[in-house]
Design brief:
Elements: H1 34-42, H2 55-62, H3 66-77, H4 82-85, E1 96-102, E2 122-127, H5 132-149, H6 157-162, E3 168-169
Helix pairs in contact: 1-3
């Protein structure tokens, strides 16, 4: 099966569930808000792309007016569960599965995607669930610990991939 044309200049699309709370957006995290994403597609990107899908111009023409943009953003925010938005049980902070590429390396990927066996298996990071009470207790302790140890470290992609800072990789270690 040749998917070469179908994947040119394309990125995997994550779920819309709780999208209001899942920023930053885009494949590289370059946009902080949904408003920035909608504006980006409204102008058809930041530069000319000869591989741009023909539907992008149709989409951008439909979100050129401020009213249409506001309607689209309201529609997208409707996918956010109020129990998650306001941290109400049982969704104080649910486990979140974040796509993180595919199993394999720069030369080959591992087949076995549940959607189609000959597609690459997804690799994900899992952010474990944290109850609101635990986070509130951590928030109270963090300034004290910070005063003793210095600034809170920044979570980097490398630390996230290594399983540091509460993130764990779903792929078993191959030591």
């Amino acid at each position: 099966m040749n998917l070469g044309v179908a994947v040119k200049a394309a990125f995997k699309v994550p779920t819309l569930r709780n999208i209001e709370l899942t920023g930053p957006y885009m494949h590289n995290g370059s946009m902080a808000t949904l408003e920035q994403v909608i504006e980006f597609y409204g102008r058809q990107g930041n530069f000319h792309n000869e591989n741009l899908h023909f539907q992008v111009s149709t989409i951008s023409s439909s979100i050129n007016s401020p009213a249409n943009r506001a309607d689209l953003i309201a529609y997208l925010k409707a996918f956010t569960d109020d129990r998650v938005r306001y941290e109400k049980a049982p969704f104080d902070h649910p486990e979140v599965v974040v796509p993180n590429g595919h199993e394999g390396n720069h030369e080959a990927v591992v087949a076995g995607n549940p959607l189609q066996a000959d597609l690459a298996k997804d690799e994900v990071l899992v952010v474990p669930a944290v109850a609101r009470m635990v986070r509130q207790n951590l928030a109270a302790v963090r300034p004290v610990v910070g005063a003793l140890t210095g600034p809170t470290p920044v979570l980097t992609a490398a630390r996230a991939a290594s399983g540091d800072a509460g993130l764990r990789n779903s792929r078993p270690r191959r030591d």
